[in-house]
Design brief:
Number of helices: 22
Oligomer: single chain
Radius of gyration: 22 Å
Helix content: 55-70%
Strand content: under 5%
Distance between the termini: 40 Å
Number of strands: 2
Structural class: mainly alpha
Largest sheet: 2 strands, antiparallel
Amino acid sequence: MNRDLLRDLGAALAAALLVVTAVVLGTAIENSDGTLHVNWPPLYARWEPHLGPGTPAALLVALAVVGYGPRLAARLGWRTLLGAAWGAAAAWTCSLALIDGRQRGITERLTTKYEYLQVIDRFGDIPGTLRDFTRHILIDSPDPWPAHVAGHPPASTLTFVLLDRAGLGGGAWAGAWCIAVGATACAAVLVTVRALAGEGLARRAAPFLVLSPAAVWMGTSADGYFAAVAAWAVALLALAVTGRRPRLTAPASGLLFGLTCYLSYGLTLFALVAAAVLVLGARRRSSRSGPRTRLRTTLAPSLFLAGFAVVPLLFTFAGFNWWEAYRLLVERYYQGAGGIRPYGYWVWANLACTVLVVGLATVAGLRRTVVTLFRGRAHVLPRAGEPSDAPDHAAAPRLALLVLAALSALLVADLSGMSKAETERIWLPFALWLLPAGAFLTHPRAWLTAQAALALLINHLLFTGW
């Protein structure tokens, strides 16, 4: 066994010990004073061993991806690979959700008292509701919004309102929407990695993006849908800054970034990921780029900003004040469980929760990511004219920078104190960008087996709240 593999296993063991510590201490704290407000810390879940109709399907998907995923990812045509990754991710997510049964696992998830579907009938007059949205954020306000509605800008709720008006109302359609759209995030991350770090690393990352424990919470969680919107915003930005149809990709990226900010306040931290994309794409141009392509690329920032302005302007003209709503959200947060949950526990237990979301393989990959960036930092900015299929000695540090930018955003969210518990759901958009670290690992099938086993254990032993 070589030294690097031993270090990978050491990192995974340390992460496992962090999780065990969070479980043991968290259980003791919750049993002592009940301040954590979760039944199975650090997860919002309860102990409930069970099987379900999704069990056979989840096992089959896991065996298929472990057995054939790395080989197919290396051999399929690129567009075929993107479609296959999306389909496999959707199948994995859906089968995991069905372990809890169709009703509990999908149909009812977005219909609880905390969720968006509870207020569909209050959006009969959409402009009027947007004008009055901030008046119902605080707990002691007249007819306050449910927790998730109050905790997010109105674009999140409006998504389900519009689905309802399109004839796709109810929990089943909302769950199907979140699974189908959320699974596309896998393809978006692959597009980004290919654009910035080369196709080879993207192909190696693909099975890890598909067979992730994060799928336990991607299924029928609105945050899975948010993750996909943010991921495509980043992917289109990566295409724009590398000269791929910037007249289309730059404004489309800006539009989705604007939407991202009106889906979740915390996703404004994706500015850190966007900054990494801009750094990596600054000099990454095709060697065949002509004057017209370079001219179009120089227009990309203006086109991005034009696209970005669309959603904020629409909501502002409709009467919704983002900054005022966020100020009131902070107050609402401390009116509820956020004001009781101890920062001293959650500031590190959130990271244990993240280990359960991304898996031990990702932890081992992150160890290699840090080493890769340190050793190859001189290659982060490639030479002008370097082709997009650059060799790994140049591509690997660029992927490392992208992954660590997402990790930085997650750590900022953690230190802010506005994410105490429930981060298995809230941080899904950031967690997905840690998964490509699996591309740095050797023995991918063994690590994929560990990923699948963790997801299956969580979904069969616990009933998660999301």
